[in-house]
Amino acid sequence: MIIREIEAGSGVFGISPAGDGVKIEYYRGKDISASVPESIEGRPLTEIGKKAFLGIKTLLRISLPDTVESIGDWAFASCSALEEIELPQRKITFGNGLFKDCDKLLRVKVRKSGGNKERETFLDKEEVGKSLRDSMEDDLAYLLALAVSKLDAGYLLDTERAGSPEWTGSLDGLLRTMLGRDDSEGFSKMLLCGEEDYVGDESNLDTYILLRKREKVRALLIRFLHDGGLSENDREVFGEYLKQNMQAVVWPLVLEEHGSEREYFDLLINIGCISEENISRLIDSMGDRYTQMKGYLIRFKGESKGSGDPFGELEL
């Protein structure tokens, strides 16, 4: 196999022939954003090779062209800063573990590509304006990232079906399965496979269980914030899990990871996790931290007093 190097931003691509097209074998560089070209020297870019971007720590965003047909195993694995990837809406053969250990992946955007029929998504169910349609497309990007990163469901990385009722049904079915899983599952196996070498908080069962619960809560928060296609039954099931784990898991996690983001506090109010019964206790637990959102909750509590529906009149 002949590999040549060509310039790619501040780095280089290693490329090789792939039938009538070109394959990226590797990338070397420190670019924050990368856009893979549709063609190289007059030949279409059709393949991203196995481990092509493996372990690139600086990469935040990458866009792949309409011409790409296959992406090899672990192509973007361990890209620890990667937040967004943009893919064309077309048939693509995906390898295994594409985004393994990409813990910061937030969005997998699907771009309409030339000549393809539009897929049916939750945003096609009614006539919507451009701003709302764009917002709902953004929801889909977050849900795709949820599927392939936090749920490790590579089979849901389907750029042609993503967002269809069947696709969102599969996603929510996976979330239901996740909620029903015993939080201690895998603990004994983890210790047996490397107890003498294992160092970390997860070696304690209580901590291990807490971390599994936090994983579930993170996934549910994303689903509620991007709730296109979410059925009323699943909304109730997921909301009940958050309410049951509000004090011990949900509230500490939201403060720690989203303590200045109002949308999370609004969400907790809307699904009943913050209520008349617990709001004073939650405010007290914030201490001198998170002053902006603490003030918001104090105002919320004060403006709600005396109303028939104390949590129904404040405009969020």
Explained architecture:
The chain is of the alpha/beta class and 316 residues long. It is 38% helix and 16% strand. It has 9 helices and 11 strands. Strands 1, 2, 3, 5, 6, 8 and 10 form a 7-stranded mixed β-sheet that branches. A 4-stranded parallel β-sheet has the order 4-7-9-11. A hairpin with a 2-residue loop joins β2 and β3. The radius of gyration is 22 Å and the shape is elongated. The C terminus is likely disordered.
CATH H level, superfamily name of the largest domain: Ribonuclease Inhibitor
Give unreliable regions as ranges.
125-133, 195-199, 310-316
* CATH T-level topology of the largest domain: Leucine-rich repeat, LRR (right-handed beta-alpha superhelix)
Q: Which range best describes the helical content: under 10%, 10-25%, 25-40%, 40-55%, 55-70% or over 70%? A: 25-40%
Mean pLDDT: 87
Largest sheet: number of strands, sense, barrel closure: 7 strands, mixed
How many domains make up the 3D coordinates? 2
Structure annotation, total helices: 9
Strand fraction equals: 15-25%
The succession of helices and strands, N to C, reads EEEEEEEEEEEHHHHHHHHH
CATH class of the largest domain: Alpha Beta
